[in-house]
Write a structure and sequence with these properties.
The structure is a single chain. The protein is α/β, with parallel strands linked by helices. It folds into 2 domains: 156 residues, Orthogonal Bundle (serine acetyltransferase, domain 1); 100 residues, UDP N-Acetylglucosamine Acyltransferase, domain 1, CATH 2.160.10. Helix content is 40%, strand content 11%. The strands form 3 sheets. A 6-stranded mixed sheet has the order 3-6-9-12-14-15. Strands 1-4-7-10-13 form a 5-stranded parallel sheet. Strands 2-5-8-11 form a 4-stranded parallel sheet, with no helix packed on it. It is globular and about 70 Å long. The relative contact order is 0.06.
């Protein structure tokens, strides 16, 4: 590129940067102090959204590090910077377990103070946390077995999958399911905050929102995944396939906290396939075994086993334009979707 291209013309003159005079004034101590005072006042007005003078604050960054170390235990050799030999795997496993045990015990001890039935007695939290971490880590072999079946489900259900290595290394669905299965075990141990921090982290990076309270069976397959929502009281059986944009949700949340503990989300029995964009809502809604839910279906009542649910396609009308220059022809405003359930 010709360097002359970047030169300003002679007539352009030289002017100061547009923000120079503003910057010079704002950096004064008086202005900064005013900004600080304004923020401090907002803290005082809304104390529930700040955390100061508290020793019971979880370290979110550390919890995410723990999650990544757990992934290395679940899938050894896949997420490391160097080659691992069989002779080294025992050392690496021991090192990871020790680090996780130490860090997670501290975080769970803090989390226990947030239980709704009240904090543990003074001095009991560390001991209780240690026991809970041991129980949780003892579940890892079982979690690994479930995830191995989830990987099989992804490979069997996705013709675009090159190998199981590709699925483990790159599929967002497997990452979201792995995080859910780990968080679910912590949820079952009645550990506050930590399970949701984990699943919301996975939600943030995959677009898949699985509440740790949901119950999900074996051989679970999520394809693509973006936009999937699986609510807290959802129950999913074995060999279920779910595609992008699916919502397994509640009919209404107007009751707020009064609905806590109520079955608000649907039950999906074994061997069900739910295609993209479908919404299945309501705690009384049961999708029977072997059902196929078509794309964009809106289901709010139970569906018997071995049936299909589909949405009648809108009639596509193509009209020749009198003028070939017209690029867009709007369809009749009276056209609408016909839901068939």
């Amino acid at each position: 590129m010709d360097k002359e291209y970047y030169k300003q013309p002679e007539s352009a003159g030289r002017i100061s940067p547009p923000c120079a005079s503003i910057t010079h004034g704002i950096t004064g101590g008086t202005h900064i102090k005013e900004l600080v005072n304004t923020l401090i006042k907002s803290y005082e007005e809304s104390e529930k959204t700040i955390k100061v003078d508290s020793v019971y604050q979880l370290n979110r960054s550390l919890l995410i590090e723990i999650l990544e170390k757990l992934r290395r235990l679940i899938f050894p050799g896949y997420f490391v910077k160097k080659y691992i030999t069989k002779s080294f795997i025992e050392y690496q496993t021991g090192e990871l377990v020790e680090e996780i045990f130490f860090d997670l015990t501290k975080q769970i001890a803090i989390a226990l103070y947030h239980r709704k039935d009240g904090p543990p007695c003074h001095g009991d939290a560390p001991e209780d946390a240690e026991k809970l971490v041991y129980v949780f880590l003892s579940k890892l072999p079982s979690i690994r077995n479930y995830l191995a079946m989830d990987v099989d489900a992804a490979f069997d259900g996705d013709p675009a999958a090159y190998s199981k290595d590709e699925i483990i290394s790159s599929y967002p669905g497997i990452y979201a399911i792995m995080t859910y299965r780990l968080a679910h075990e912590l949820y079952l141990l009645d550990i506050p905050l930590i399970p949701r921090i984990m699943t919301e982290y996975a939600h943030n990076i995959t677009g898949i929102d699985i509440h740790p309270g949901a119950t999900i069976g074996k051989h679970f397959f999520i394809d693509h995944g973006t936009g999937i929502v699986i609510g807290e009281t959802t129950v999913i059986g074995n060999n279920v396939k779910v595609y992008q944009g699916v919502t397994l949700g509640g009919l209404s949340t107007r009751g707020g906290q009064s609905l806590r503990g109520v079955k608000r989300h649907p039950t999906i029995e074994d061997d069900v396939t739910i295609y993209s964009g479908a919404s299945i809502l309501g705690g009384a809604t049961v999708i029977g075994r072997g059902v196929v839910i078509g794309s964009n279906a809106f289901v709010t009542k139970s569906v018997p086993a071995q049936t299909r649910v589909s949405v009648k396609n809108p009639e596509l009308q193509i009209h020749e334009n009198e003028s070939k220059n017209v690029e867009h022809q709007e369809l009749d405003q009276n056209e609408f979707w016909d839901w068939v359930i």
